[in-house]
Structures are given as C-alpha cells and as structure tokens.
C-alpha cells in the first residue's frame, strides 16, 4: 500500500490548501475520463479566447490569477462544525475575465498547486479542474451571473449573483466529488453517507465564498466598472492603479494573511473523516505509484512549506506561487493572442 502525500491522506496542517481531491479517491479509469472531459473544455475555451482576444485583459488575467491562488491559501473556519473552507475563485474570475479566460486561469492555478506544491494528486487533476473550475466558470456564469445581469448591473445584483452562483457551483462540485469516488469504487465512502456529509458543509463554504466574491466585485465595480460591464465609462481609477492595488493585495494575502489560515480540516477532508473515522486513505497500484513519484520530484515546496514548521515557508510559497501563476496566465494569454494573429494573417 502506498500513502500519497495529498489531501485525503495526511493530517491537515495550517497553511495548506485542501479543497482538492487526492489520487487515493479515484480509479485510473475515472481519473482518465475526467482528464478527457476537462481537456475538451480547455480546447474549446482556448478557441473562444483566440476568437475574441483582448490585449487589455492580459495583465488582468495575470493579477487575478495570482489573487485567487493567494486567496485559496486562506482557510476560514465554519462555525460549530470544526471544519474550514476557502474560495475556489471561478465565479470571481468569470465575472471579470469572462468564462473562457477564467477557466484557463483556473487551470493555471490548479496545475501549479498540483505540480509545485503537491496540492491535489496528478491523477485527480482532471477532476479538480472539472469540480473547481468548470461549474463556476460555465454553469455559474451562464446560468446565474449572466441572467441576473441581463438588464443592467447594480451592487445588489452583483451580491445576489455572487452568492447564488458560488453556492450552486460548489454544490455541483461537491456532488461530483461524491460521484467520482463512488464510480471509482471507493468502498470506504458509501454514496449516501458521503453525500450527506459533503453537501451541507459545502453549502456553508459556498455562502461565505459568495460574500467574499461579492466584496471583490463590488470594489472593482466602484473603481473600474468596465472590467465587469463593457458599456461602463465612469472609471474612478486607471487600470494601472487597479492592477497595482490588486498586486499589493496579492502580496499581503499570500505573504501575510495566509499565516492566519484556519487549522481545521477543509470541507472535503472533514467529510471523509466523518464517514471513515480516519484521517488517511490509502491507494495502491502502478498508476498511483508512478504519479506519486512524479509529483514528489516536481513539488519543490510540498505542502506550501520548506519541509519544516517554519512559517516563512508558507509566506514564501504564497508569494512565489502567486508570481508563478501570474506569469503562467500571462504567458498563456500571449500565446493565444499570437496564435490568433497568425490565423488572421493566413486568412
């Protein structure tokens, strides 16, 4: 038996980001199927971005990707339950960047978390992209946010769309986790008991994420509204100033506020503990072994730390991880922009 160093198989340490599924929760077949589903959504998103590329969104994509990465490091306690949660960020990104660029940004965040920090398994990456990014960026945006904003944007509508969108998206994501473990044949997590633990706790987490999302979007609406509404012209701050402010916030959140993260287990780990009575699940098999070994080599800052109890590791991880995500997001958007120009020339 192999114990993977991922979220469902180790004790939760302060500063870790444990919303992500671990490889031990999945069979290779289910993991592969979810990779295929996420890849299809990725290719479609890349195509849509190339068709409607906006150079002004490039720095915004970078700074907002960095912000969501940093914000995910802050686990907030859920009163009474003994659990905690953190924002996923898909709804926030979709409102600012649009659903397709938001989805690509979430992929960059999840990829860096997985490979650089060993947060979530490599086999489970396709599931994590689907559960944490797809529902928020597409369902949350097209079925909740966009319809509410149809006849004009107001602060009240932003708050309603943010809270409702985050709650529903997170409920779908939590339910997908249950389905994926059930289809994978994880007998330690029976469907009925697991879903009864997962849905209520993620309802609370979704509500808090909705309020946080609403606060950020209202700030942007009041300072640079055209980032949310293309027809808005009453900008109080220049785009450079807004980006500078968000960059400072990223450093403060990733480097300092991340140290105040709740030490309570995240909703997923808390639910697994409630069902199994154990802090760890085990996985075996060649695929799990191979991918675990790969992750051990790529994770330069496993568990967002230097491998000891020093809080400096958490701060360093928050700042460096945010910077890497920002660079990757900008690089992705530039590549897609160049591809669009080449296609336009050939036509």
Describe this structure as you would to a colleague.
It is a single chain. 66% of the residues lie in helices and 2% in strands. It is mainly alpha-helical and 347 residues long. The chain has one domain: Orthogonal Bundle (Arp2/3 complex 21 kDa subunit ARPC3), CATH 1.10.1760. Strands 1-2 form a two-stranded antiparallel sheet. Strand 1 and strand 2 form a beta hairpin. Helix 1 crosses helix 5. The longest helix is centred in the last third of the chain and has 35 residues, at 312-346. It starts with 27 loop residues before the first helix and ends with a helix.
List the helices and strands and how they pair.
Elements: H1 28-51, H2 57-72, E1 76-78, E2 83-85, H3 90-97, H4 99-117, H5 125-148, H6 155-183, H7 191-223, H8 239-255, H9 267-276, H10 286-298, H11 312-346
Antiparallel strand pairs: 1-2
List keywords for this structure.
347 residues; mainly alpha; Arp2/3 complex 21 kDa subunit ARPC3; two-stranded antiparallel ribbon; 11 helices
CATH topology: Arp2/3 complex 21 kDa subunit ARPC3
Shape: globular
Mean pLDDT score: 89
| C-alpha termini separation | 56 Å
Structural class: mainly alpha
**For the report, how would you describe the main beta sheet?**
2 strands, antiparallel
- Element order: H for helix, E for strand: HHEEHHHHHHHHH
**Amount of beta strand:** under 5%
Judging by the overall fold, what is the CATH architecture? Orthogonal Bundle
> Given this structure, which CATH class is correct?
Mainly Alpha
């Amino acid at each position: 038996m192999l114990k993977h160093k991922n979220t469902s198989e180790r004790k939760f340490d302060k500063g870790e980001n444990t919303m992500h599924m671990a490889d031990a929760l999945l069979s290779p077949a289910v993991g592969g199927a979810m990779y295929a589903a996420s890849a299809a959504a990725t290719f479609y998103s890349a195509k849509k971005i190339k068709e409607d590329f906006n150079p002004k969104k490039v720095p915004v994509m970078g700074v907002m990707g960095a912000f969501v990465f940093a914000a995910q490091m802050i686990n907030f306690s859920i009163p009474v339950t003994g659990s905690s949660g953190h924002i996923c960020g898909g709804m926030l990104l979709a409102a600012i960047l649009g659903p397709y660029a938001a989805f690509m940004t979430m992929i960059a965040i999840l990829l860096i978390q997985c490979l650089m920090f060993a947060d979530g398994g490599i086999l489970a990456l396709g599931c994590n992209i689907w559960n944490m990014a797809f529902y928020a960026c597409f369902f949350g945006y097209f079925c909740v946010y966009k319809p509410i904003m149809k006849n004009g944007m107001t602060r009240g509508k932003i708050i309603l769309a943010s809270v409702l969108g985050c709650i529903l998206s997170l409920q779908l994501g939590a339910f997908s986790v249950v389905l994926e473990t059930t289809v994978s044949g994880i007998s330690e997590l029976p469907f009925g008991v697991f879903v009864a633990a997962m849905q209520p706790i993620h309802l609370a987490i979704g509500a808090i994420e909705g309020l946080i999302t609403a606060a950020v979007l209202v700030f942007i609406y009041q300072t640079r509204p055209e980032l949310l509404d293309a027809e808005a012209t009453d900008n109080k701050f220049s785009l450079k100033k807004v980006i500078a402010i968000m960059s400072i916030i990223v450093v403060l959140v990733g480097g300092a506020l991340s140290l105040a993260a709740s030490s309570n287990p995240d909703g997923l780990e808390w639910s697994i503990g409630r069902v199994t009575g154990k802090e760890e699940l085990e996985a075996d098999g060649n695929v799990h072994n191979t991918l675990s070994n790969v992750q051990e080599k790529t994770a330069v800052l496993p568990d967002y730390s230097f491998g000891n109890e020093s809080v400096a590791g958490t701060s360093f991880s928050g700042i460096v991880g945010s910077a890497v995500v920002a660079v990757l997001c900008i690089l992705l958007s530039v590549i897609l922009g160049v591809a669009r120009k080449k296609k336009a020339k050939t036509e």
